[in-house]
Design brief:
binds S-adenosylmethionine, 7-stranded mixed beta sheet, Rossmann fold, single chain, alpha/beta
């Protein structure tokens, strides 16, 4: 007679099966990776370790360089010091006692050099531009009053004229003001070995005269006079026999008679800036030039003096004796070609 298993025995057997299954699974050996994979994983771990070490080193270096940075207080002190130095530079070269600044920016000098090359053909005009700048600054620091006009225009004229190799050092300037530009041109031409001789025409009327504008005391406070011009020419190193002053207007018969005793290698037209004034001056000076002589037309293309460009362009259309060489800043350069 088969006995019926008790419920207790059935439950014990079932539990026994579950227990043995769990024990078997727990004791089953884990699937081990192949030795080749183990080596690769080890290499990856080594690489990661090296990267972490390098990152630590870089962090340490960064920390050291951060420590070496000046503190905010030190930076403020340095900024204040630079400010003080700039104020001094501004007093020397800024617009305070002049009409415009004499601080030449690098990009302005580069643009000037490009223009000088276009007009003169000089391949390396940088030295000429730098020398012209030093001449202008030196003369204004030493001299009385100022050179007329913006810095790039002044430097452009002083750099360009010598590079055009005028046929002689005889210079005629119409419109002299304080004589400092004339002294600068003398120096720049002398640098090329020329022996400049200046004929300088101006009414020396105490103030700057300009048709269509009000004559007021110059911002420098200095009178436009023969005395000041002579002093500046001497301060600029122009010998007493290196210049003559002709007092009067370029249209005066007496002035024209005195000036016509010679031919000129360079003529600077910088007197009456009106259309009529420039037209009259150009007609007159064209025949005073030596062959190959150079005319400088100051303020050509300057919107404040439209008559300069209008009269020059009209003159070039109607007469063949002068050829336009080009423009540097706001001055045009012409050459006598017949
Ligand atoms: C722009 S300033 C000359 C600046 C000078 N060339 C320089 O670069 O410093 C013009 C001068 O020309 C003078 N002027 C005006 N009309 C003139 C004329 N017809 N003949 C000669 N000078 C004249 C003015 O009185 C003034 O002194």
């Amino acid at each position: 007679m088969t006995s019926v298993p008790s419920a207790q025995r059935v439950a014990r057997r079932h539990l026994g099966r579950l227990y043995r299954g769990a024990l078997r699974r727990a004791l089953a050996p884990a699937a081990l990776p192949a030795p080749r994979d183990l080596r690769r994983q080890q290499q990856e771990v080594d690489g990661l370790r090296r990267e972490v070490q390098a990152a630590h080193r870089r962090l340490a270096e960064l920390g050291a360089s951060l420590d070496a940075l000046p503190s905010p207080e030190q930076l403020q002190a340095t900024a204040a010091d630079v400010e003080r130095r700039l104020e001094a530079l501004d007093l020397l070269l800024g617009a305070d006692s002049n009409r415009s600044t004499r601080l030449l920016r690098h990009h302005q000098a580069l643009a000037l050099a490009r223009e000088v090359t276009a007009v003169t053909g000089a391949e390396k005009p940088w030295g000429a531009v730098a020398a012209a700048y030093r001449t202008a600054v030196d003369l204004e620091l030493h001299g009385i009053a100022r050179i007329a006009g913006g810095l790039t225009n002044v430097v452009g004229k002083l750099a360009t004229v010598p590079l055009l190799r005028p046929p002689s050092g005889e210079v005629l300037e119409i419109g002299v003001l304080y004589g400092l530009f004339a002294a600068g041109l003398h120096r720049q031409l002398a640098r090329t070995g020329a022996v400049p001789s200046l004929t300088l025409v101006d009414p020396f009327a105490g103030v700057q005269l300009q048709p269509g504008t009000e004559s007021a005391t110059d911002p420098t406070g200095s009178p436009v006079s023969e005395t000041v011009a002579r002093r500046n020419l001497a301060l600029g190193g122009v010998p007493a026999d290196g210049f003559r002053l002709v007092t009067g207007y370029s249209g005066d018969a007496a002035v024209r008679a005195q000036v016509a005793d010679r031919r000129y290698g360079v003529v600077v037209v910088d007197g009456d800036h009106s259309f009529e004034g420039v037209r009259a001056d150009l007609l007159w000076v064209q025949d005073l030039l030596e062959p190959g002589g150079v005319v400088v037309l100051d303020d050509y293309g300057d919107p404040r003096w439209p008559g300069v460009q209008q009269a020059t362009d009209e003159h070039l259309r109607e007469h063949t004796g002068l050829r336009m060489l080009g423009r540097v800043s706001t001055s045009a350069f012409l050459r006598r070609v017949d």
